[in-house]
């Protein structure tokens, strides 16, 4: 029997002396039962169930103290109340519901028809329809009572935005084939924290590991019917529980400890951990989807519904959480605080972030959800990154999120692809290419997109991400090849902005291969020497391929797992990427916190200056010439380094986007007295340090066609 000695907060199930405190939101229910699940001694794979009524309801929160419940106990809820789908009331005690605040989750074996609250052909809007009375308990996920976490021992690295290099990776895909990681740990949290993984990340030079969703998730029924899974995990089953499928331990009670240990090990190695989080929708899909948790507890509060009780979908995933509801804001904030305080993570990338900031329909930069995140003291030191678009009305909002949010900059992605690939293809076909204006704007930090108060560090610059072609595939495929996904190649974007350099897919042509690999290096050089925060995708540093699949969300296999058996050219590319990241960290000139002004600094140089191939400063006529493909950018040494690791000196980037570039004259700008080559994208491997000759200003050089060069200017 539950006792009245309890409070309606914190939500969830929390042990204390003598039992557990239970609190769950079901504001339209008449009765809520806690269900304690134990193995049925008579039937293997079945669970016996004890149902305990929660005695108290305060402002829609049902709560009570339940004595004699140990940690490790499996549990769920059953909710009684009105069945009125038009009003969003889908109370059905036949459905065993997962606690939205469960800290650990034991997933079901697979999604079964018994989980569905309706037959597909039923009249879903009619309140006269009866609920499905089939018991879902044998196939439902279970919450697990967990003990309070132990004291954290690591210190967060707190790396400044200006020195941050983000590396987007999947827990399983990164280490599933990684040599040096024991077989039992591959593809797990423990494998991610293994010394072999950390050694690789250290040598690469990245500072922040951004993990694709690690919240417990559930694959869609249509994928399971085809023998596939939602590999990416953008289909959340629980906002507080790490996905047990990524744990090396078989004990669900130890998953939290393994995840926390991973974070602490990465922190001790100086690496930050960012989580890709999905608070815009859940795995329950639309009203024909499964009733697993939120829909059965309080669909009218958790979800955006139309006048007929159907889901309003801003996400393309069937439903949208209703961020206009106070309890939904509370859910998101409670989850974020938990991952920062108890799991020790350093920040978040918010999937389809505009959905979290919509009023009735429209986006609001001062939405209560965003205000709450911005002023919350627990989140004050966390990195917050918005994916600034969703599929709802006016869903593209790049540059419109308030500080301290950074944003994925899709304008950067598109303009860099256009210059090196789309325009490159047009040059190869004898057409007029795109100009330099957009590329220069992106290199300088996208001041046209982000307000001056936010500065260039609000821009997370990327050319590839988990969705889309890999960097190598951008240079090898003109169109997507998603047939393995089982959707007749209809899924995934058709706007790839890619160029196969004359042959679709694999080829043995040495000329085409050389051109592809040079453009990979061109893009990496541009990305890592632009103002803003660069983001790499795991494997792009050595040219991994997905065989042209630009949407492998359902591919938990070799297409998605990194292949660490590198060919010689891949070893060369990896060495190049390491070299470029090292150079970026040494030159503070390319990660300013404020937009360039073009004004002269203490060194006598402009903070940034732009030159044509003849060494003269770019004019409006130059910028307006759509056929120009040559550019020199001089980044002045900042007045004071932001880190002792930085090298003194300014940096010159020479972009030769022409098929046959003319002679280039290095800028003669007092007080500069010399230039020395640091890197040339025409070469497969970086040069030995200090091996290049020192050149005086006004020296004539001849870059290779379609190449980037970097010089230190002193």
Description:
It is a single chain. With 714 residues, the chain is α/β, with parallel strands linked by helices. The protein has 14 helices and 27 strands. A hairpin with a 2-residue loop joins strand 5 (56-58) and strand 6. It is elongated and about 85 Å long. The termini are far apart.
CATH architecture of the largest domain: Alpha-Beta Barrel
What is the strand tally? 27
Which regions contain 5 or more consecutive residues with pLDDT less than 50?
110-128
* Highest CATH level, the class of the largest domain: Alpha Beta
Core attributes:
alpha/beta; Immunoglobulin-like; TIM Barrel; 2 domains; six-stranded antiparallel beta sheet; 14 helices; 27 strands; elongated
Short account of what is shown:
The protein has 714 residues and is an alpha/beta fold. The chain has two domains: 12-144, Immunoglobulins (Immunoglobulin-like, Sandwich); 162-431 and 449-584, TIM Barrel (Alpha-Beta Barrel).
How does the SSE layout of this entry go?
Blueprint: E1 12-16, E2 19-25, E3 29-39, E4 47-53, E5 56-58, E6 61-67, E7 74-81, E8 83-84, E9 89-90, E10 105-106, E11 142-144, E12 166-169, H1 171-175, H2 189-192, H3 195-204, E13 208-211, H4 221-225, H5 255-268, E14 272-277, H6 294-302, H7 326-341, E15 347-350, H8 368-375, E16 383-386, E17 406-409, H9 410-428, H10 437-443, E18 459-461, H11 471-474, H12 510-528, E19 533-537, H13 568-586, E20 608-611, H14 620-624, E21 630-635, E22 650-656, E23 664-665, E24 675-680, E25 694-695, E26 700-701, E27 707-713
Parallel strand pairs: 12-13, 12-19, 13-14, 14-15, 15-16, 16-17, 17-18, 18-19
Antiparallel strand pairs: 1-2, 2-6, 3-4, 3-7, 5-6, 7-11, 8-9, 10-11, 20-21, 21-22, 22-27, 23-26, 24-25, 24-27
């Amino acid at each position: 029997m539950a006792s009245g000695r309890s409070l309606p907060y914190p939500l969830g199930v929390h042990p204390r002396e003598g039992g557990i405190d239970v609190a769950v939101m079901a504001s339209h229910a008449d009765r809520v039962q806690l269900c304690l699940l134990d193995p049925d001694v008579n039937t293997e794979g079945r669970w016996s169930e004890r149902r305990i009524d929660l005695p108290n309801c305060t402002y829609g929160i049902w709560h009570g103290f339940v004595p004699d419940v140990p940690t490790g106990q499996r549990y769920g809820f059953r909710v009684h109340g009105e069945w009125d789908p038009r009003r969003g009331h889908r109370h059905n005690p036949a459905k065993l519901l997962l606690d939205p605040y469960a800290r650990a989750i034991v997933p079901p074996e697979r999604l079964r028809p018994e989980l569905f609250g309706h037959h597909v052909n039923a009249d879903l809007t009619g309140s006269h329809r009866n609920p499905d009375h089939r018991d879902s308990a044998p196939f439902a996920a279970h919450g697990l009572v967990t003990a309070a976490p132990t004291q954290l021992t690591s210190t967060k690295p707190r790396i400044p935005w200006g020195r941050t290099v983000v590396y987007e990776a999947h827990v399983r895909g990164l280490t599933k084939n990684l040599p040096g990681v024991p077989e039992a740990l591959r593809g797990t949290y423990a494998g991610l924290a293994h010394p072999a993984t950390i050694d690789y990340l250290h040598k690469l030079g990245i500072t922040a590991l951004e993990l694709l969703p690690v919240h417990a998730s559930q694959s869609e029924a249509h994928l399971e019917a085809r023998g596939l899974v939602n590999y990416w995990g953008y289909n959340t089953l629980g906002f507080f529980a790490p996905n047990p499928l990524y744990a090396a331990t078989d004990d669900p009670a130890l998953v939290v400890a393994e995840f926390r240990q991973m974070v602490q090990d990465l922190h001790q190695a100086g690496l930050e951990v960012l989580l890709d989080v999905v608070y815009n929708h859940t795995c329950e899909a639309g009203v024909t989807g499964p009733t697993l948790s939120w829909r059965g507890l309080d669909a009218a509060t958790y979800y955006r519904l139309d006048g007929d009780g159907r889901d309003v979908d801003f996400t393309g995933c069937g439903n949208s959480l209703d961020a206009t509801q106070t309890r939904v804001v509370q859910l998101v904030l409670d989850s974020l605080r938990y991952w920062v305080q108890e799991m020790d993570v350093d920040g978040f990338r918010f999937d389809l972030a505009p959905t979290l900031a919509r009023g009735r329909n429209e986006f609001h930069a001062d939405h209560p959800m965003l205000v709450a995140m911005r002023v919350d003291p627990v989140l004050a030191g966390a990195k917050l990154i918005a994916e600034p678009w969703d599929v709802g009305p006016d869903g593209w909002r790049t540059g419109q999120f308030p500080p301290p949010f950074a944003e994925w900059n899709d304008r950067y992605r598109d303009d860099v692809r256009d210059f090196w690939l789309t325009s490159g293809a047009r040059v190869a076909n004898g057409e007029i290419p795109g100009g330099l204006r957009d590329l220069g704007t992106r290199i300088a930090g996208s001041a046209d997109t982000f307000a001056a108060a936010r500065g260039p560090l609000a821009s997370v610059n990327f050319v590839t991400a988990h969705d889309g072609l890999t960097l190598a595939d951008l240079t090898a495929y003109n169109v997507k090849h998603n047939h393995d996904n089982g959707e007749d190649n209809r899924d995934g974007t058709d706007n790839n902005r890619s160029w196969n350099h004359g042959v679709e897919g694999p080829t043995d042509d040495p000329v085409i291969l050389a051109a592809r690999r040079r453009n990979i290096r061109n893009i990496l050089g541009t990305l890592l020497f632009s103002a803003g925060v660069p983001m790499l995708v795991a494997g792009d540093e050595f040219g991994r391929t997905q065989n042209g699949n630009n949407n492998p969300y359902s591919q938990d296999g070799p297409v998605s797992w990194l292949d660490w058996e590198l060919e010689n050219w891949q070893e060369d590319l990896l060495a190049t990427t390491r070299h470029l990241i090292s150079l970026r960290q040494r030159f503070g000139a390319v990660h300013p916190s404020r937009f360039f002004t073009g004004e002269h600094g203490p060194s006598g140089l402009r903070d940034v200056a732009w030159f044509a191939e003849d060494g003269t400063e770019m004019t409006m006529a130059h910028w307006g010439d759509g056929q120009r493909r040559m550019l020199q950018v001089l980044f002045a040494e900042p007045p004071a380094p932001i880190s002792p690791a930085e090298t003194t000196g300014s940096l010159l980037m020479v972009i030769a986007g022409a098929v046959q570039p003319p002679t280039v004259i290095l800028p003669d700008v007092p007080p500069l007295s010399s230039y020395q080559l640091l890197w040339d994208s025409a070469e497969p491997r970086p040069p030995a340090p200090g091996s290049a000759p020192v050149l005086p200003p006004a020296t004539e050089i001849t870059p290779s066609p379609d190449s980037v060069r970097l010089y230190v200017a002193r």
